[in-house]
């Protein structure tokens, strides 16, 4: 189990961000459908989801894909600041106990 964290540090009004995680057994051919997808986001914040890799035993590599959109009459180019972080589920607890 992986905990995937999406942090949005900058966003403008009337924008959306969609982030998907793809998997690959070899780093060359990628899944057609995402292994997991964050719901569309419209605000700064920190969002987490779980990815159960046991359901995808051939996955050795992960890739983040994103789609940005803006629906205003002004500037047509969206502007975002964001990051995606992955860690094993329970990693923070293990570190705290140690």
In short:
Helix content is 7%, strand content 49%. The protein is mainly β.
Would you mind describing this structure in some detail?
- With 98 residues, this protein is mainly beta.
- It has one domain (2-97).
- Helix content is 7%, strand content 49%.
- The chain contains one helix and six strands, in the order E-E-E-E-E-E-H.
- The strands form two sheets. A three-stranded antiparallel β-sheet has the order 4-1-6, with no helix packed on it. It has a three-stranded antiparallel β-sheet with strand order 3-2-5, with no helix packed on it.
- The longest helix has 7 residues, at 91-97.
Any descriptors?
1 helix, globular, mainly beta, 98 residues, 3-stranded antiparallel sheet
How far do the termini sit from each other?
20 Å
Derived from helix and strand composition plus strand pairing, the structural class reads mainly beta
Q: Order of strands across the biggest sheet?
A: 4-1-6
What integer is the average pLDDT? 85
Count of beta strands? 6
Shape: globular
Poorly predicted runs: none
What is Rg?
Answer: 16 Å
Helix percentage range: under 10%
Largest sheet: 3 strands, antiparallel
Reading the helices and strands in chain order gives EEEEEEH
The total of helices stands at 1
Number of domains: 1
Strand content: over 45%
Note the topology.
Elements: E1 2-11, E2 15-24, E3 36-37, E4 45-51, E5 61-70, E6 80-88, H1 91-97
Antiparallel strand pairs: 1-4, 1-6, 2-3, 2-5
